[in-house]
Every structure is written in structure tokens, then in C-alpha cells.
Amino acid sequence: MGAMREVVFVDGVRTPFGRAGEKGMYWGTRADDLAVKALQGLLERNPQLPLDRVDDVGIAATTQQGDQGLTLGRTVALLAGLPITVPGFALDRMCAGAMTTASLMGAAIGAGQYDIAIAGGVEHMGRHPIGGSDADPNPRFVAERLVSPDALNMGITAERLHDRFPHLTKERADRFGMLSQQKVQAAYDRGDIQADLVPVATRSETGWGLATEDEGRRPETTMEGLATLRTPFRPHGRVTAGNASPLTDGATMSVLAGADTAAELGLTAKMRMLGFAFAGVQPEVMGLGPVPSTEKALKRAGLTIDDIGLFELNEAFAVQVLSFTDHFGIADDDPRVNPWGGAIALGHPLAASGVRLMTQLARQFEQRPDVRYGLTAMCVGLGQGGSVIWENPHFDGKKGK
């Protein structure tokens, strides 16, 4: 292998995110069809992309069974119309599935093994709820006290973050959740988010419809209303539906390429991948995962947290994001953090969310030539974190970080 190549994020799209469950807009839609629609939308937006040049398709899902199984990368590629010569695979790293497929595709491109790759994720939590599969955890985990029996209950792990950091109060978490709702609505009002949504035809008992917007938004959220919500994970707890991401259905898709290949084909370069890292922490406090993964990624890139001008952090729980920002000395309302809101308002379809962060950051880079570096990061079930550092190709060097 020769020298490492420059890797670029060409484009990313997603379906509108729907509420999971029988009342959600995707209850009558297959999981693989959500992924197919996202991939078709991506290809339609990039007609100059020669399909026979795609080296691989990686699609992540946390619960790989039923309509969300059968090697999604291969089956979705075929259903979306890619040539039969294009291979594909499926991957699981729980919430960081799509982040992992994009990272590994980027690494393969950087090493000169691939020129173009597609990376995405899908999760239909209505059809395949987390913990609802036939997974059979090894009894040694509990018998040998390797992992707490409730470590897979993400709400309880969030409550433990409140326990560990008492200054991260419920009020702070509620305020963060309320601001997320408000920022998402403001981004919608400006038309920032809709540009990367692929409409999806839906079917219900009342007939056919068209999903064009995220279903779970609650811009009318107030602190007074949040204070009345029950705490389902612990009596008199702090984690509620108002400061946590909702159960969600949706799919994301992206294309990455070598910078030289992108230039050859006339493809856009919305971001440059500088590096990525994953790290493990105690499963009982899995929300801390992005802290060591970010420290590792920053060190490898020769940067510090002060160099990051935009943060796209997955809002699995408000306290999880606050534990990250608190560690790095970043204010709760720092304008660099999730400027268009996040998963508390938009939803978190587990394995799909990583590419949603990337797509949103890429769109922000276009509007912010004063920002040079951005970070996408997220916590992962069973005690992990993932972080990817990106460089803005629109950076004009005049100001900012």
C-alpha cells in the first residue's frame, strides 16, 4: 500500500424519522424499504456517480432479523438498482452502526483499497424494538459480575450519569431538551433540514400518505411541561421522555470517496475525514463513551477540543451530552454544540443516527466557512463511544476555528 489518500464525504441523505409503534407513520413500511428509499434518493442526487464504480455498500442495523436482516448492504443495493457486481455487508455496533460503516469505508478508501463506498444504517424500532430480538446474553456476564444486569437498559445508564455527576441536574437536562426542540424547529423554519430528506410513501389503514418531515418534533415544549413528566426508569428519577430521544424508525445513507476519485468524476466534497476513534467504558455508564473516543481521535489528528468549531453530538439523553460538554469545559448552551438541535427532537433510530450527524454537519459546513473542524460523536450501548473528526473544505481561513 502507498501513502494514505484524502477521504471525502460526498453526500448524505436520510428518510424523515418517524415515531416507532403502531401509531407511527412507518408502521406499515418495511425496514429494508426505508433503506432502499434512502439509497435511491442518494443516487438520484448524484447522477454523475457511476454505479459500477461503487466498491462496497455497508448498512448497519442493531436488530438484524426479519425485514431488517439478510445482509442489508447486499440486499438493499440490489433492490435500489445497483449493479449485481457491487458487493455489500451488514454491521452492528448498536447506536454507532452507521458511524462505524462510514468510518471503516473511509479507512478502506484512505488505504487505497476502495475508491467509492456507500455507508448507512436503518432501524425500525417499531417492528424491532431494542432488546426485543432473540439475543441470548451469556450468563457469565451476570454470574461473574462482568456487567450489571440492567446495563442494557439505556435509561438506567442515563440515571447513573446523574448519580455520578450531581451537578448535572434534571433542570439542566430539561432545559437542554427544550432547547433541542426549539433549535430543530428554527432549522425547519429556515429550510435547513428538509434539503437532505428523501420523501417516503407510507401506507396505513386510512390509505397512502407521504412522509416529508420528522414526525416526533415538539416545538411547543416548555420547562413547566417537562417538570410534570414521569420518570419511567426510577421513582423520583431525572430521565424523562422530554430529555431523552424517542423510539424512532428511519434510515440514512451516504457516499464517501477518495478525493482524487471525487475530482475525477466531478463529485462534491462536502467534508474531509481527518480521523476517527472508538473506545470502551463501563457499560453501566455507557453515556461517557464519547469522552475517551474523542480524546483518542483528537490526539491522532493533532488537534485539541478548542480546535473544534462545530459539534454534532447524538442526543441519546440530555445528561449524556451534558456529561461530554461538562468534561471538556463547554457550556450547556454553547452555540457550537448541535446548532440545529438533535435526537431529542428528531429521534434516534439507533444504527442510522451516525450518518444523520454527518449529513447535518456537512450542511452546516457549507454555511460556515469560518469553521475549519467539526466533530460527530455518540455514545454506544454496552459501554462504547465513537467520534469522527471532519475538516471543512469551504474554510476560508479568515476567522473562527
Describe this structure in words.
This protein is α+β, with helices and mostly antiparallel strands and 401 residues long. It has a domain at 148-194 and 274-391: Thiolase/Chalcone synthase (Peroxisomal Thiolase, Chain A, domain 1, 3-Layer(aba) Sandwich), CATH 3.40.47. It has twelve helices and twelve strands. It has helices at 31-45, 72-80, 97-110, 140-143, 154-164, 170-190, 223-227, 259-265, 290-301, 318-327, 343-346, 353-367, and strands at 7-14, 18-19, 56-60, 88-91, 116-124, 200-204, 207-211, 248-258, 271-280, 308-313, 373-380, 384-391. Strand 3, helix 2 and strand 4 (88-91) form a beta-alpha-beta unit. Helix 1 (31-45) crosses helix 2. The longest helix has 21 residues, at 170-190. The two termini are 33 Å apart. The mean pLDDT is 96.
CATH architecture of the domain at 148-194 and 274-391: 3-Layer(aba) Sandwich
Could you tell me the mean pLDDT?
96
What does the largest sheet look like? 10 strands, mixed
Class computed from helices, strands and strand pairing: alpha+beta
Q: CATH homologous superfamily of the domain at 148-194 and 274-391?
A: Thiolase/Chalcone synthase
- Count all strands and give the number: 12
String of helices and strands: EEHEHEHEHHHEEHEHEHEHHHEE
CATH topology of the domain at 148-194 and 274-391: Peroxisomal Thiolase, Chain A, domain 1
Runs with pLDDT <50, length 5+? none
Shape verdict: globular
